[in-house]
Write a structure and sequence with these properties.
Largest sheet: 5 strands, mixed
Number of helices: 3
Strand order of the largest sheet: 3-2-1-4-5
CATH class: Alpha Beta
Helix content: 10-25%
Radius of gyration: 13 Å
Distance between the termini: 14 Å
CATH topology: Nucleotidyltransferase, domain 5
Length: 103
């Protein structure tokens, strides 16, 4: 499983909407039962406001099957679910929330 997590500081899940985060941290689960950070990706759409922004943002993280985010717009949720992306909503520290996914 690959999980994309929006973040501005690399420690906490970004509190705002998915597309407004500075970067996406990409985690992968390994057989040991924990997630490991494998990559950071810049969000080039951070400061833009365009129609269908969620789809543009998804193109940055489309190799991930799960998104761990604090917030996604209603239309964005539907669009991502139509692409078979698993959505998990949580706030707080990334590492703590990833541990909860494993359980």
């Amino acid at each position: 499983m690959k999980v994309a997590v929006p973040s501005n500081d690399g420690i906490n899940i970004y509190k705002g909407m998915l597309g407004r985060a500075k970067k996406f941290l990409i985690y992968r689960d390994f057989p040991e039962g924990k997630f490991t950070l494998i990559e950071e990706r810049e969000n080039v759409f951070e400061k833009t406001l365009q129609h269908l922004k969620t789809i543009d943002v998804y193109n940055i993280i489309n190799d991930c099957d799960t998104i761990l985010s604090a917030s996604i717009g209603k239309k964005g949720i539907t669009r991502l679910e139509n692409k078979n992306v698993k959505l998990i909503f949580a706030k707080g520290k990334i590492e703590e929330q990833l541990k909860l996914i494993i359980k």
